[in-house]
Amino acid sequence: MTEIFVSDPLSAEVALLHEVALLAPGESHLEMCIQCGTCGGSCPSASAMDHTPRAIFAMLRAGMKDEVLKSNTPWMCISCYFCTVRCPQDIHITDVMYTLKNMSLEAKTYPSSIAPDFSKTFISMVENYGRSFEIGLAGIHNLKHFATRLPNMAPMAIGMLTKKGMSITPPKRIKGMDDLKKILKRAKELEAV
After folding, report:
1. Core vs surface per residue 146-170: b (16+ CB within 10 A) or e
2. Which one-letter DSSP state was computed for residue 24?
3. Do 105 and 123 meet the contact criterion of CB atoms below 8 Å apart?
4. From residue 115, how far is each of 10, 32, 119 by CA, in Å?
5. Which of 24, 64, 121, 141 has a CA-to-CA distance to 134 between 20 and 30 Å?
6. pLDDT tens digit sequence for 133-165
7. Residue 168 contacts residue 138 (beta carbons within 8 Å)
């Protein structure tokens, strides 16, 4: 008589996919990916990604955690939601990308500090002003990571300043900053859970 052994219902490979799905906010529907490629075909920054979202999802399904968390794909996501809107399976791809960014930050496996630093600077401005301060964000980011490029960017910056496309002074804080701070504090508490 042949014995049948039942293994753990979630293999290590599938467990990674479920872990990411559970960490993503709301119902990610990540398990529903049919590998159609609509996400990558819809993405305006796909050419800058080392893997399309579809490939990332296949890598998650294959248990390739290190490769996924070292990928630049989540960091190249510009949060336009084109992929999410066009996905025939209603996968919340942008939310999954945010989850992968957070996992990469926690594991310290991001491909370079450029994108995380940009994100931290942006978040700091939103926390302080309630909005972004473009010239401050670009200035701080470029000074930190691309100082040698600044002279080449000067003509564009001068043009934007003279045409009032951008202000050199920080923005006024939005009305309701206290409420925004409460919302952000609560979001951080929920994220820690």
Report:
1. eeeeeeeeeeebeebeeeeebeeee
2. S
3. no
4. 33, 29, 6
5. 24
6. 888 888 888 889 988 988 888 888 788 788 877
7. no
Residue spans of the domains in the chain: they are: 12-107, 114-192
pLDDT digits (tens, 9 = 90+) for 109-138: 988 888 888 888 888 888 989 988 888 888
Q: What is the pLDDT of residue 20?
A: 95
| CA dist., res. 57 & res. 38, Å (int) | 13
Return the structure tokens found at 160.
């934007």
Q: Count Cβ neighbours within 10 Å for each residue of 58-79 and write b for 16 or more, e otherwise.
A: bbbbebbbebbbebbbbbbbee
The DSSP string of 49-116 is -SS-HHHHHHHHHTT-HHHHHH-SHHHH-----HHHHH-TT---HHHHHHHHHHHHHHHT--S-SHHH
Q: How far is CA 126 from the centre of its chain?
A: 16
Q: How many other C-beta atoms are found inside a 10 Å radius of the C-beta of residue 45?
A: 12
The domain defined by 12-107 folds into Fumarate Reductase Iron-sulfur Protein; Chain B, domain 2 (1.10.1060)
Are 95 and 23 in contact by the 8 Å Cβ rule? The answer is no
CA separation for the pair 131, 149 (Å, rounded): 26
Residue entry with tokens 């590998």 = 35
Closest by CA to 87, choosing from 43, 143, 132, is: 43
